Amino acid sequence: MAKRRKLSNPLALAVMATLGEGRPMHPYEIAQVLRQRGKEQSIKINYGSLYTVVQNLEKHGFVEVAGVQRQGNRPERTLYGLTQAGAVETHDWLADLVAEPQEEFPAFESALSLMLILPVDEAVALLGERARKVELQAASTRAVLEKLRDDLPRVFTIETEYQLHMMDAEVRWVRGLLDEIQEGTLSGTAEWRQWHETREVPQEWADIEEQVKDASAAERFKEELAKLNPPAAEQDR
Question: Helix %, strand %, coil % for the chain, to 5?
Fold first, then answer.
């Protein structure tokens, strides 16, 4: 299970990873490095909040002031370096992200969970539109990836490769879902149409709702009962 961390913004991790290369930098330079390396394709980078992120890292002891830089008549710029605690946090945080699946609540998944609100035919049209757009994104990403592979070792392009695989998988899944809806083989489609035509909840759905309520009530009862009757091992403490 992933550890609860003092900071959760992936931009903070990117800042520490960049400083972990050993050269103190000021926030603007960190932003330039991240931009040059195309990290905004994988990490939501709000350059306006970068200074706040650095301040929070300093507050928690993960980075520290390593000097001051002045060029000509420009204002002084504070340089930051990674602390030992920051190096440990960078390693542990990244290890968690690589090993532990996260609940990320993607927007499309949220939309799918509520899609029955839309009429069937409208949902079909919108899903088709999404599939076409993702296909275009995939084609563009594939072209970029091929160009990158001409210039860089593959180890530097694995996040782009992952993005492409996710796009291809999404298109296949959406196309398959569309086929099932249009062929009428997706269970529940008939009731979905019925609900929009009559605005009356189909009996099958009402029965499912009752079953869910009963199951939830039973689970809550078990939880309350467990609180009243803790395991013997706990009673002996």
Answer: 70, 5, 25
Question: Structure tokens of 229?
Answer: 């009757």
Going 147 to 151 to 154 to 160, the CA torsion angle's sign is negative
C-alpha angle 42-1-82 in degrees, rounded to nearest 5? 55
List, for residues 181-231, the tens digit of each pLDDT value. Answer: 999 999 999 999 999 999 999 999 888 888 888 877 777 767 776 777 665
> Any idea which architecture 10-99 has in CATH?
Orthogonal Bundle (1.10)
CB atoms within 10 A of CB 190: 13
Q: What is the pLDDT of residue 2?
A: 63
Count of alpha carbons within 13 Å of 34, Cβ hemisphere only?
A: 27
Alpha-carbon distances, residue 11 vs 2, 58, 75, 165 (angstroms) = 18, 14, 25, 24
**DSSP labels for 47-88?**
GGGHHHHHHHHHHTTSEEEEEEE--TTSPPEEEEEE-HHHHH
Query: From CA 16, how far away is CA 37, in angstroms rounded?
Result: 15
Instruction: Look up residue 152 and give its two tokens.
Output: 């860089």
The model's pLDDT over 12-56, given as tens digits with 9 standing for 90+, comes to 999 999 999 999 999 999 999 999 998 988 998 887 889 999 999
Q: Which residue has the tokens 């300093």?
A: 58
Distance between CA 27 and CA 50 in Å, rounded?
7
Tokens describing residue 168: 């291809």
pLDDT of residue 216: 78
Domain boundaries, the chain: 10-99, 120-199, 201-230
